[in-house]
């Protein structure tokens, strides 16, 4: 399999360097051949090529079986009014590859509960997957700016909603059969369309899945007060961005949250949901588990290697059980560095 | 002073009926005269007058010194595709009165910490006011719907951002001098404008206030992981809706969160941030504290009665200290009803 590696900025190169050896260990152990090719994206691509998503990167990504991504952005490129910004590379590659469904599993690990701001008794048994729509909505609508005002257009087509709801309902069917669709239908026209389409798709195509609708403001509360009540949550791009960062707090550390961005084809982007963490970049102390768990999702979703994916996940859980904690998880003093954490998984 | 009372739907009438006597007690004790006039809004207004904000209600509101509101909406009017919906009444009155700044204080009371999903040690000393922009953004932009798609336009003018940032910075100046502005400037044009305007207003007019910018997704995390780090938070309409419901979890119960919606004139709308709670409506068990604390904000902001406001707040805190808890706060079995809770405050 051909895997394109996009380290990006900040801690991106460190966590990706720690993860590639895990995939190599999988290849050795299970007799596969993975070919890795590294390309630039984000700030480093701006520095080297003048643009956040160089043509060579996109071309390699289009031909790959899967893409492993670190993180993009940093203080060096942080002026929001600059015409060229690292995040544009991330948004552009998601869009160009048609990766409309972003899966973000949230399953707090018993050994890491202490690091969560949420009371531990609420967290036992929490097992949620958020499916965030990733190539539509206000992220990609027309934008204007004048001296007097600015605008962003939020637009959703029926087809865009249908396909992401199908991915989420299919996933719910394979899990506990419960789907929560999140919108703001009491205010937004796009949300009223979202609610209608979700209702119809589930009724006609997934009669075995139980669908519930939640307003985004209530969801932001209930995610904290009764996280065990949720199985699969599906929502539009912006709401998904906010709710998954909030949900990451259930897992104790953003450093444990993996993601897969999927489309109609097999290729997907696999990346931790955390950012480039410029404050700790270059020190070799970042938590690599989210990236390693993202690589496990790659094995499952793009490479069809379920046994291998489960083995990697079990190895990460084993390392957590053994309290091999990086600084974000450890009580003061007991932390290991990135390399030691990755070695424990291998 | 002339106070317009808008009970609305669900538990609205119950919590408002419990709060008016508190204001009457204030009037007696401090020698004021409050005249109350009740009008319809929301679902009950649809039933009685065919529209969620009847002309008579708006006219009375325009002439009033302050408005006390319960809640609107309920299953009877819950079809999001209906042309007339209760929430439209709420949005319309906010807009018609120009109430652009919605203040939502979050200060967990020690006696109620047990009801919060957040670990208590993170909550001691938390004292935040969220200032939510209330009459702009995607809530009020043009909307379209066709068979194939739907759109909502998010628009902000420089003037809209300036005025709400001024309210928030002024408040920060009277408090701990720290202001956090929340946006999504790495994606939205309206957010880049928001960030530019906030930066300029604070630099030029509030050099003594420390301004920090946060992306909305990070904010959704940090609000949970380090709530003590925040003083005043200012943000646009939709982000404010989501973040304040999330922040309410810090306070243990939505039943404790008050709000004030203010504009350029003295008149304001004072309402709990919770909804109409149809599941418990009519039973007389709703928590009246959020509405009573909203009445305290009315005394302060619209009627200029700071001593009286502080007295009401102290009385609610006293009731909480004495563990006079409604069902949302009480451990099973120990709950009092709405009337008993209000009586304890009086
Ligand atoms: C960097 C940013 C554009 C991005 C997003 O908002 O999608 C990030 O927050 C994420 O969640 O992947
Ligand atoms: C009822 C709804 C329109 C309203 C809003 O979103 O503003 C409510 O959630 C609120 O926060 O006051």
TrEMBL record, chains A, B:
Residues at which Mg(2+) binds: 217, 241, 245
Q: Which residues bind substrate?
A: 94, 104, 132, 217
| Domain of life the protein comes from | Bacteria
Return the annotated site residues (Important for catalysis): 139, 184
Coiled coil spans: none
The chain positions of domain Isopropylmalate dehydrogenase-like read: 2-345
- Chief location category: cytoplasm
Xref: PROSITE patterns:
IDH_IMDH
Sequence intervals crossing the membrane: none
Asked if the Swiss-Prot or TrEMBL record annotates the protein with the keyword Nucleotide-binding, the reply is no
Question: Which is a Gene Ontology cellular component entry for this protein?
Answer: cytosol
An individual GO BP term: L-leucine biosynthetic process
Q: Which InterPro entries match?
A: IsoCit/isopropylmalate_DH_CS, IsoPropMal-DH-like_dom, Isopropylmalate_DH
| Catalysis performed (reactions) | (2R,3S)-3-isopropylmalate + NAD(+) = 4-methyl-2-oxopentanoate + CO2 + NADH
| Annotated compartments | Cytoplasm
**CC cofactor note:** Binds 1 Mg(2+) or Mn(2+) ion per subunit.
MF terms (GO), sorted A to Z: 3-isopropylmalate dehydrogenase activity; magnesium ion binding; NAD binding
The entry marks the following residues as binding NAD(+), namely 74-87, 275-287
Q: In which pathway does it act?
A: Amino-acid biosynthesis; L-leucine biosynthesis; L-leucine from 3-methyl-2-oxobutanoate: step 3/4
Cofactors required: Mn(2+); Mg(2+)
Q: Which UniProt keywords apply?
A: Amino-acid biosynthesis, Branched-chain amino acid biosynthesis, Cytoplasm, Leucine biosynthesis, Magnesium, Manganese, Metal-binding, NAD, Oxidoreductase
Assigned EC number: 1.1.1.85
Name the protein family.
Answer: Belongs to the isocitrate and isopropylmalate dehydrogenases family. LeuB type 1 subfamily.
Its annotated function is as follows: Catalyzes the oxidation of 3-carboxy-2-hydroxy-4-methylpentanoate (3-isopropylmalate) to 3-carboxy-4-methyl-2-oxopentanoate. The product decarboxylates to 4-methyl-2 oxopentanoate.
Quote the protein name from its UniProt record.
3-isopropylmalate dehydrogenase
């Amino acid at each position: 399999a051909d895997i394109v590696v996009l380290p990006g900025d900040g801690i991106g190169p460190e966590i990706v360097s720690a993860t590639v050896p895990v995939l190599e260990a999988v290849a050795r152990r299970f007799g596969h051949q993975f070919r890795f090719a590294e390309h630039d994206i984000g700030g480093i691509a701006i520095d080297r090529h003048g643009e956040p998503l160089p043509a060579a990167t996109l071309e390699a990504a289009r031909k790959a079986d899967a893409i492993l991504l670190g993180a993009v952005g940093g203080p060096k490129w942080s002026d929001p009014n600059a015409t060229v910004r690292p995040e544009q590379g991330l948004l552009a590659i998601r869009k160009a590859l048609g990766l409309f469904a972003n899966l973000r599993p949230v399953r707090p690990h018993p050994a890491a509960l202490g690091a969560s701001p949420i009371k531990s008794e609420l967290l036992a048994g929490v097992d949620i997957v958020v499916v965030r729509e990733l190539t539509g909505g206000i992220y990609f609508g027309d934008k204007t700016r004048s001296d007097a005002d600015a605008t962003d257009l939020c637009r959703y087509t029926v087809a865009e909603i249908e396909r992401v709801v199908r991915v989420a309902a299919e996933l719910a069917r394979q899990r506990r059969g419960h789907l929560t669709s999140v919108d703001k239908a009491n205010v937004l026209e796009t949300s009223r369309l979202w609610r209608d389409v979700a209702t119809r798709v589930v009724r006609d195509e997934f009669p075995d899945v139980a669908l519930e609708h939640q307003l985004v403001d209530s969801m932001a509360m209930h995610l904290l007060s009764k996280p065990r009540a949720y199985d699969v949550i599906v929502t539009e791009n912006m709401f998904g961005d906010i709710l998954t960062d909030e949900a990451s707090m259930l897992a104790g550390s953003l450093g444990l949250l993996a993601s897969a961005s999927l489309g109609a084809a097999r290729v997907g982007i696999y990346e931790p949901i955390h950012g480039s963490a410029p404050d700790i970049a270059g020190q070799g102390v970042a938590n690599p588990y989210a990236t390693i768990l993202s690589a496990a999702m790659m094995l499952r979703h793009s490479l069809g290697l379920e046994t291998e994916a489960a083995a990697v996940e079990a190895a990460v859980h084993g390392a957590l059980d053994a309290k091999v904690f990086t600084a974000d998880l450890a009580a003061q003093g007991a932390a290991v560095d990135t390399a030691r954490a990755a070695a424990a998984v291998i």
